[in-house]
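Check these lines:
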Amino acid sequence: MNETVRLILLSLLAVVLAGYAIAVALLFWLQGRLVYPLEQIRGVTRNAAADHIEPVTVRTADGLVLPGRYAPASRSDAFTVVLFHGNGEDLSQRAQIAHDLIEAGHGVYLAEYRGYGGAPGHPSEAGLFADGRAALDFVAQRTTRIAVHGFSLGTGVAVRMASEYEALTALILEAPFTCIADVARARFPLFAFRCMVRDRYDNLASIGRVRAPVLICGGRADAVIPPVQFARLYSAVRAPRRLELIDGAGHVDVWEQGAREHVLRFLDDLRRVSAAVETDRHRVRTAPHDA
């Protein structure tokens, strides 16, 4: 190889490496906008169905006052489901799911995140976890029969809350991911995201600590989160678990394409198990004892 060719190749390599470094720097700088696309959220039309659920507020441990929507369960044996929405939504986008649950007799709490839906603050992993704790604390003051539902980014909050609150009745995950780095790698496979990502939302590391029964629902045609991540999460669950892969469903239509029926059946099964346990306890308490 003569000197001219060698210099040309070295120059090309330098250009490629410089381009790669610039791309890495841009992704690192823009990751907050990718995970929390607040500019996009401002253009989302609110779902007016949320207005039929009572507005409430909660205060986070760091002093933020966040909006929410709350409806108690209409049946004593039903659950109150705390709903954590995705990154491209506000709480109103979960309103149809909330109304389906209410119609079945369950209560709901539509949780909002800092920076979303006009709420104060700026989103971050630690911040959203604080927001989730405030929502759970609000509901826990009113009932002990609590389930948590997360969609997409909301699964990161839901899994963390379920790993911390041992008294939860159920964890429901819709289109969940293993961790943010894995989602990013699936979209940009040339980049080493594990050392770049600030907000990790490591569901795979946390879900093994969850003691409540877990239902995972995902679309087989999900183009945002590879369905293999649903299976990996399912394998990491140590509690009673179900996995429902829904034919024809993508990322945002899992509920409409079949998750609704799976979730309601899951909650109904848990209700029956809970009732059977209570019946057995009552029999033990009221059974005659030998003198």
Observations:
- The first helix runs from residue 3 to 35.
- The chain is about 45% helix and 15% strand.
- The domain at 36-286 is CATH 3.40.50.1820 (Rossmann fold).
